[in-house]
Structures are given as C-alpha cells and as structure tokens.
Amino acid sequence: MKPLRVAIGLSLAVLATLALGALHVPAPPDFFLLVIADMARGGAAVPAMLVGLPGGLLEDTLLAPGGLLGLHAFSKILVGYLLATLGARTVVEKPLAVGGLLAGSVLVEAATLTFLVWVLKGDFLPPAPWLLLARAATTGLFGGLLYAASRVPWRQRREARRRVRLT
Q1: Residue 73, number of CB atoms within 10 A of its CB
Q2: pTM above the 0.70 mark?
Q3: 6, CA 20 to 30 Å: which among 31, 39, 41, 64?
Q4: Which CATH number fits domain 2-166: 1.10.150, 3.30.420, 1.10.1760, 1.10.760?
C-alpha cells in the first residue's frame, strides 16, 4: 500500500508543481516535501530517505533543468531523515505543530541548497527572504490542513449519514 501511496503522492506533487508553475504562483508550497513528511510520520528514516531521493530528483528536473542534478535530492534526503528522527522521538498530533515542522523543513532545505550551491559552484545565491518565508508559510499551512483533514473519520461519518437516511 505504501509504494502505491508514494507513487500517487509524487505524481500529484509533479502535477501540482506544474499547475502552479503555469499559473505563475510566486511562492507555491513544496508538494514533494509533503510526500516525504507523510513517509516520515511514523519515525521510519530509511523509507523517508528513499522517498526523498526520487522526490528530489523530480524536483531537480522540474525546477532546475540543466543545473546540478541531485541538489534537491540530497536536501530532500536530509530533510526526510530529520523529520523521521523527530517523528521517532516526539509525538506531533496538532495540525499547527505539523505545519510548523513543515515550514521549518522548507527553511532547512533552503539553507542546505544555498550552502551546496555555494560550495559546488562558488556562487553565494541566497533566496529572496520574503519568497522563502512565503513558501515556508504556504507549505506549513497546506500541510497542516492536509493533516487535519486526514485525522477526520470520514468513513464513519459517511456510514452514519447512510444509516440515518436508511431509517
């Protein structure tokens, strides 16, 4: 079930990234990070890192064609490991806390990417602060909303409504 969930999640991340890119949204959420965070939820570091690799490579091909392939993959693997480590040591149940972790993950990934570009290319190119904060906020907000929606017992509510209609 998990490989299918990952494949669907990465496919939806690609489609959402392309759609928001076509709409010229200045600071879209990091949809690939949401898939990685979903895998890291239970504290399993290796699966989260294994999802970070294709997620980062897909992001590399979509956002930086012709650049250094693997920068996003490395940062996604690192973020997947960090999120899984936090997931193994703490219990995060509130959507606000999940959103905060995701926003922090965006900032860690941006710092990692900036450092890697600086070391590998010799160019110190930090992202625009307001764009970075907006991307962190949108990722945290979207991830928190998805987490809150995943905690709602939809199946039980649907069954209860169906039982009410039958009686």
Answers
A1: 18
A2: yes
A3: 64
A4: 1.10.1760
